[in-house]
């Protein structure tokens, strides 16, 4: 359970980093100032609430099992596909 809590902290931080992003690599692009003003304590509390749902843990663990053997090439291909879909729609 402690590992799951650490994972959820990472997921929370990653989710917050993605809020308001318009594209690009999260680690290389800061969130726009307007997005930063939208992420207040109420938003963070709401995210913590839905992350506490057992379905989230089941989903994350299941996804991790399904993707455990992906090669870097597979990850890159999936990322490229996601970026193409994002740009189209």
Helix/sheet category:
mainly alpha
Number of strands: 0
Q: Roughly how many Å is the radius of gyration?
A: 15 Å
Task: Spell the H/E element sequence.
Answer: HHHHH
Give the N-terminus to C-terminus distance in angstroms.
Answer: 38 Å
How confident overall, as mean pLDDT?
76
Uncertain regions: pLDDT < 50 for 5+ in a row?
16-26
Structure description:
- By secondary structure, the protein is mainly alpha-helical.
- It has five helices and no strands.
- The protein has helices spanning 2-18, 33-38, 41-51, 54-67, 72-88.
- Mean pLDDT is 76; it is low at 16-26.
SSE topology:
Elements: H1 2-18, H2 33-38, H3 41-51, H4 54-67, H5 72-88
Quick synopsis:
The chain has helices at 2-18, 33-38, 41-51, 54-67, 72-88. With 89 residues, it is mainly α.
What descriptors fit this protein?
0% strand; mainly alpha; 89 residues; single chain; 73% helix; 5 helices
